[in-house]
Amino acid sequence: MVEQTMQQVQLRRLGNSDLMLSPLGLGCWQFSKGSGMIGKFWPVLSDDVIRDIVRTSLAGGINWFDTAEIYGGGKSEEVLAEALLALGDEAKDAYVATKWWPMMRTAGSITRTIDERLRRLKGWPIALHQVHQPFSFSSAAAEMKEMAGLVKQGKIRHIGVSNFSAKRMREADRALREHGLRLASNQVKYSLLDRRVERNGIMETAKELGVAIIAYSPLEQGILSGKFHADPALVAGIGGMRKLSGDFKPAALERTRPLIARLQELAGKYDASPSQVALNWLIHANGETVFAIPGASKPHHAKENVRAMTFAISRDEQRELSELADRCGAR
Length: 331
Hints:
Blueprint: E1 12-13, E2 20-21, E3 26-27, H1 36-39, H2 47-59, E4 64-66, H3 75-87, E5 95-100, H4 108-120, E6 126-131, H5 140-153, E7 156-162, H6 166-177, E8 185-189, H7 196-199, H8 202-209, E9 212-216, H9 227-230, H10 250-255, H11 257-269, H12 274-284, E10 290-292, H13 299-307, H14 315-327
């Protein structure tokens, strides 16, 4: 085990914004209360549990929370806001990011739905408003024009996107420049086992433009924790759409076992867990470009998340994990 000093979480600037955020935020999809098709991905959590998760995250140095309109049809936004308000001064410096759902809509819907977002968030300011998907009836430029209007009205602070390609990121940033603004972030799927953004130009373009990458599914739905490798019987207990992931199949678990073994070795060295090492790789392997939003369905999951920000694996270990993940079939 290496000796290390527990330190205060170092905030970093979110891309082209003025937001100083913790490297990890809390993803709040699991706060959907089982509402709607998307909300059924996770079990229903009680208000007390949600409040404890938010409190534990804040106490550990996380200062921002990511939610979305589609998460339970606004239910996640609502219960997150209730938890933050209930915590009073403990949450007074917290930032909230949310997302507009574009499917089967035009850009004008961004402006038409913003008051509903603010209502669901009970007036909590929207620090970052993101276009959730690239698929809508409008161009990226039209969407950015609407977003820019909301910034000028003071209804949102910064603008991000999610699941945008490198080309569409450029289009969005170029459109925002015409309004004197810049694109702050692109939220994408990224983990040790899903490295596509490193290969399809998204990471390279983000660094060139100064856009932050916000990584969702950073632990591959729990695969990188190693618990399913240690006890494959746990797979049977997975519920909802999550159980459809091919990563939980026996052959996939066997293929990724060497990576899990190395994460476990490094966990011993840093007095951490495999999940914490995997998250640590994610927020350090690309300088300060990448933020991550692991979820938490229990307070101890939130405590597990925040510990990942208190140490840093070496550059050699970062490279080793990258190479090992490739050999284990990372996408």
